[in-house]
Amino acid sequence: MNSIGSGSVLGILRDERFIKAALQLAFTALIIIAAISLARSVDSSLREKNLAPNFEFWSTRAGFSIGGAEAYYSPDESYWRAYVVGVENTIRVVILGLPLATIVGIFFGVCLLSTNFLVKTIARVYVEILRNTPLLVQLFACYFILVLALPAIRFAIEVPQGNPLLALSNRGLVLPAFYATDRFMPFAVIAIVGLVMAYVVQRELGQISERTGKPTPRLWIALGIVVAAAVIGWGVATAAPAPETAAVTNGSETVEMPVSEAMAQNLLTNEQLREVARAPFFMEQPRRQGLRYVAGVNYSGEYIALLLGLVVYTSAFIAEIVRAGIQAVDKGQVEAARALGFGYGKTLRLIILPQALRVIIPPMGNQYLNLAKNSSLAIAISYADLFQVSNTIINQSGQTVSVFVVIMATYLSMSLLISYVMNTVNSRFQLVTRSPQKGGGLFAIFAPHGAIGSLVRRLAPQRGGS
Known about the structure:
Layout: H1 2-14, H2 16-48, H3 79-112, H4 117-131, H5 135-147, E1 157-159, E2 166-169, E3 172-175, E4 177-180, H6 184-212, H7 218-237, E5 245-250, E6 253-258, H8 259-264, H9 270-276, E7 281-284, E8 288-289, E9 292-293, E10 297-300, H10 301-327, H11 331-339, H12 344-374, H13 386-397, H14 400-429, H15 451-459
Antiparallel strand pairs: 1-2, 2-3, 3-10, 4-7, 5-6, 8-9
Helix pairs in contact: 2-15, 3-4, 3-10, 3-13, 4-10, 5-10, 6-7, 10-12, 11-12, 12-14, 13-14
C-alpha cells in the first residue's frame, strides 16, 4: 500500500497539469505579497508626511470653480461633487465622440477604396496626416488655430442674424434648448402607444406576407400609424386653452403682460413657459446679454476643440480598419452582386459591410477604448474633464493615492463597459461554429476538467478498488 501510495504521489507531482496549477498559484501568491508590501511601504512613507491615504476628505468643501458648470455646481460643494462634474464632462465627450468618429471613419474608409483618383487621394492624405501626428499636437491645433480664431462673442456668427438658432464664437457654440411642458405627458403616452401598435402591425403583416407569398406595404402602414398617433397626441395635448397673460417682473415691479408680448421680449422664465406654452415642448433660443449668452445650450470652446481633435484622430484609424475589413471580403461576393444587378451602394450596404463587420468590430472596439482614455488629454487645453478636476483636488487635498485609486477605477469601469458592449455586438456578427472550450487562465485550474479537478479525482478512492 505504501509503495502504491508513494507512486501515486510521484505521478501526481510529475503531472503536467499539476505543475501548471502549482506555478500559477505560486505566481499569484508572489503578486499578492508584492502588492501588500508596496502598499505598506507607500502608507508608511505618506504617514511620515502627514498624508496618510483616506477617503474622508471627499465630503469636505471643494473651494474651486469649474468652468462651464456654474449653473449646477458651486465651490461650496464637496470634492466628490466636483469629481462627479468632471466625470459628467468626460462622458459628454465620449458619448458624442464615439458615433461621430465612427461615421467619419466609415466615410473615409469607403473613400480609400474609391475608383475616383481625387477622392481616393484626399482620403489617403487625411488618414496619413492624422495617423502620423501626435494627438496632443492636433488638440493644440484645434484649440489655438481653429477655435480661438473664431470671432469674439460680440461679433459672434448668428444663424439667423438677430434672432439666432445657432451662435458660434471663440467662446464656443450655443444651440437652442428644448424643455418639456405640462402638456408633454399625454402626447408622450399616445405616441408610445402608436409606436407599439406600429411594431405589432408590421410584425403581423410580415408573417402574413410569408404565408401568402405576396408582399404587403407594411413599412408605409407602420409609418402611417406613427404619424397618426403623433397628430392625435399633439391635438390632445394642445386642446386645453392656454393663459392669455402672465406675471412679468420688470425692474422692481411685477406686471401682467400678454403672453405673446412677453415671449417676444424673452421676459418669461422657464417655469412660466411650461405653464403658458400650448405645445408639449418649447424651444428656448440663444440670447445674448453683454458678453455672454444666457439661454440655450452652451458648448464651450475647450469642449469643441477636444471633441473635434478626438473625432478626427480616431476616425483616421477607424478608416484604415474599415478599408481592411472591406478588402477582406471575398471578391467573388462583389462579382456575384454585380451579376445580380446590384449597384455599388446597394452592394456595399447589403453584401460587403455585413460581412466586413466580422473583421471590423474587434479592432474598432480598441479604438473606442483609445478615444475614451485619450480624453484625459483635455488637461492640455484646460477642459474640466475628470482628470483635470482630479488634478486640482490632488493639489488642494494632498491625497494623491486616494484620488488616483478613484481615477483608475473610473477609467476601468468606462473601459469595461465599452468592451462589454463591443463584445456583445461582435457576438451578433460572428459565424455560428462549434462552441469553443470554456475556461482559461488561472481560474481554469479550478474547473471540473482542470488541473485541480483532475488531481482531486486521482486522490479520491476509487469504487471497487482494494
